[in-house]
Design brief:
This protein is mainly alpha-helical. The chain has one domain. Strands 1-2 form a two-stranded parallel ribbon. The radius of gyration is 15 Å and the shape is globular.
């Protein structure tokens, strides 16, 4: 498989995994990105109890893998820009779909490396 060009995220530290321009770009693109996520979600989503979220406040959404479109569907269901904590090294390096994850915003963590796990928390902050 072809390389995606995202391998650099394996080694990007807290100061270099994104930029102010990248953060600004993702905030601007959030509404448009939401439309693409809706188009990519082929299943009907049932939200049983959605909490009232305060505008401008940061939240952590925790979900697990349950079907092949779970990441897309979760991002679509959340009413704000959300960064994905990604621990799939091979997929990040080789799956072209992960370029969309990068465009949305992702924090890569090498699950086998304690330093990478520690830095993931700082990147989320």
């Amino acid at each position: 498989m072809k390389r995606t060009g995202l391998k650099k995220y394996e080694y990007a530290d807290v100061e270099h995994f994104t930029s102010k321009a990248g953060l600004r770009f993702r905030k601007i693109m959030n509404k448009s990105w939401h439309i693409f996520l809706k188009l990519g979600t082929t299943r009907k989503i049932h939200i049983v109890d959605y909490p009232q979220l305060q505008k401008g406040k940061n939240y952590i959404f925790a979900c697990n893998h349950s079907f092949d479109e779970d990441v897309i569907s979760t991002l679509y269901a959340i009413d704000r820009n959300a960064y994905v904590l990604n621990g799939s090294t091979d997929q990040t390096e080789h799956n072209p779909k992960f370029l969309a994850l990068w465009a949305n915003g992702m924090i890569y963590v090498n699950r086998c490396d304690s330093e990478s796990r520690r830095q993931a928390v700082q990147k989320m902050i």
